[in-house]
Amino acid sequence: MTVPCVRVERERGEAARQRLEAADLLSETHDIAVDDGRLYIPVASEETVPDDLEVVEYDPPVRDTQTMPADILGVEPTYERLGDVIIIDEDDPDRAQVLADAIMDSDLPVATVVNKQSKITGEQRIRDWSVLAGDGTETVHREYGAEFVLDIASVYFSPRLATERHRVVEQVRAGEHAFDMFAGVGPYAVPMAMQGAEVVATDINETGIEYLRKNAIRNGVSESVTAIAGDVREQGDDYGDWADRLVMNLPHTADEFLDTAVTLAGDEAILHYYDIQHEDDPYAPGESAIRAAAEPEYAVSVETRHEVRTYAPHEVNVVLDVRLARR
């Protein structure tokens, strides 16, 4: 059976393996294969592999020492892993329970299996879950050298955005003032601080901010992170003209906060603006909104237009990296 694998020249294989391991992307069910001078490194999720690595379908050897859910069920199930919590999405309760039991009986490192019960809703961006096995929804997620403790029942977190977060964090330089306007448990804020930035992070979800503070301590950057529970629009007076970099990862309604972003921006700032739009014209609405908020006080130049992922049929999640320079 073929599975997604990163294909890389043998001499680059170890570096690629280490990158995938740091992002918690290595497959737990298959071993690395060598074929015609190239390595095939099985990955757990094709969607989150960095864009500069080639992903192909290949049939690597299965690890004989592990019993996987597919061995028990006779078919390959679909699930998502967040730390030691396995997430499934099954409409039929009986089928969901059979899958959860198979996952728990397998050799996967799992403590809890949950089933999605609702869409992400409300200001705090959380969803309802049904716990099918295990007794807790708190877990520790690891990506690119950072660790995040979180409770999926109380906060929003998407492991599928790991590659995008890393893309932004790699741009951060020591000494920057970075403002994460919708910070959650800190998947942008904490790594930016680990890069040497001074970070202010806000979120309306008080539980998310509590976890962010724990994660700043956990990753050794608590002195570099100021975490504030509340609406970011109330922070303009305290941090006006402060930010060299702003992260706006609230794609459905980020445009409502652009006036605040402009207030927070220093003489020159990079804005990472996330949006969800129709695939026919995904970038123009966000760019128009940014220009309407920032001009003429700032010169606006779009440095990157990037599609993060497909969000829904004919809708895409995109990001604009925009430079603001005060005139």
How would you describe the overall organization of this protein?
The chain has 327 residues and is an alpha/beta fold. The protein folds into three domains: 56 residues, Alpha-Beta Plaits (2-Layer Sandwich), CATH 3.30.70.2580; 68 residues, GMP Synthetase, Chain A, domain 3; 172 residues, Vaccinia Virus protein VP39 (Rossmann fold, 3-Layer(aba) Sandwich), CATH 3.40.50. It has nine helices and 17 strands. The strands form four sheets. The chain has a seven-stranded mixed sheet. Strand 12, helix 6 and strand 13 form a beta-alpha-beta unit. It is globular, with a radius of gyration of 21 Å. The N and C termini lie far apart (59 Å). The mean pLDDT is 93.
